[in-house]
Design a protein that fits this description.
The longest helix is centred in the middle third of the chain and has 29 residues. It is globular, with a radius of gyration of 18 Å. The two termini are 29 Å apart. Helix 1 packs parallel to helix 2 and helix 3 runs parallel beside helix 4. It has one domain: Rossmann fold (3-Layer(aba) Sandwich). The chain is of the alpha/beta class. The model has no long low-confidence stretch (mean pLDDT 96). The structure holds 1,4-dihydronicotinamide adenine dinucleotide. 1,4-dihydronicotinamide adenine dinucleotide (NAI) binds next to helix 1.
């Protein structure tokens, strides 16, 4: 199939979009794709310098992109970012909760500090951002939230401390928001990536043969790219998904459906 750069069909022109974790990986690609679709985009990240640099790279002459430093785990920081976005871009239409961290650890020994930090950024941060940016959406009776969860929300990701438990919480948070805010015109959905090559996961791919081994167990026979996730996020955020809420789109090349492939089956 042909690649196309025509994204007019999404109807995102002029929408004000906030993407958290937009300094890197999936968040950056998503923010860039919103900007290319004609949206006005706020790139938020703990890494303010990279967020601003990324935003500047996609800025048009009328200033459609801004980059801001913020900490998804701190309410006062989210509030400050929301104020700056309201002033510089106007009322927010779309929030993409994406900023996340991974602190490996087995459950027998995981440090409380690591557990709490992951829950704070990956779960509480999503709730706080939904609350802060969602309030204005509720007041206007329109808006869309997209949360980047993970296939780890439904498949236990071992030796990753609070990661799986936190992603499962995100999936439920999204559904709860969909139920509570649906009658007020605000939708909430999840995109759950499988194995995606980004700075978060890059260390794995430095080991010889890992890329090929991982690709070989995915039905699509490749590891995913940030663009694969961004495409699904943009669709769910857009008016094209106006009647979709409380749902999850798994973007994993079929990986989470491959379980039966591990059972030896002579002749196949
Ligand atoms: P990444 O590490 O490339 O980007 C994450 C960004 O979040 C970074 O720019 C980082 O500075 C920012 N961030 C971290 N803590 C923050 C905080 N407290 N406040 C503000 N920003 C903060 O990671 P990647 O891979 O792009 O991950 C994005 C999301 O996708 C995460 O929620 C992750 O759990 C999820 N995901 C990633 C997968 C993968 O294979 N890479 C698979 C499944 C889910």
């Amino acid at each position: 199939m042909q690649e196309t750069s025509n994204m007019d069909w999404l109807g995102l022109t002029g929408c004000v979009c906030v993407v958290t974790g937009a300094a890197s990986g999936i968040g950056r690609e998503t923010a860039d794709m919103f900007a290319r679709a004609g949206a006005r985009v706020a790139y938020l990240d703990l890494n303010a310098k990279a967020a601003m640099k990324n935003a500047a790279a996609l800025a048009k002459e009328d200033g459609q992109t801004i980059g801001l430093g913020f900490d998804a785990g701190r309410p006062e920081s989210i509030e400050a970012a929301a104020g700056a976005i309201q002033t510089q871009l106007g009322p927010v239409d779309i929030l993409v909760n994406n900023a996340g961290i991974l602190r490996p650890g087995d459950l027998a020994h995981v440090a409380l500090e690591d557990w709490e930090m992951m829950m704070r950024v990956n779960v509480t941060g999503y709730m706080l951002c939904a609350q802060q940016f969602g309030r204005a959406m509720l007041a206007r009776g329109q808006g869309a939230l997209v949360h980047v969860a993970s296939i780890a929300a439904s498949q236990p990701q071992a030796f990753s401390g609070a990661y799986s438990a936190g992603k499962a919480a995100v999936a439920m948070l999204s559904r709860q928001l969909a139920f509570e805010w649906g009658p007020k015109g605000v939708r909430s959905n999840c995109v759950s990536p499988g194995m995606i090559r980004t700075p978060l996961s890059e260390a794995f791919y430095q080991a010889p043969g890992i890329l090929e081994k991982r690709a070989s167990i995915v039905p699509a026979r490749r590891v995913g790219m940030p663009q694969d996730i961004a495409e699904a996020v943009l669709f769910l955020a857009s008016p094209r998904a106006a009647y979709i809420t409380g749902q999850e789109i798994v973007v994993d090349g079929g990986f989470s459906q491959a379980l039966m492939g591990f059972a030896p089956r002579p002749g196949y």
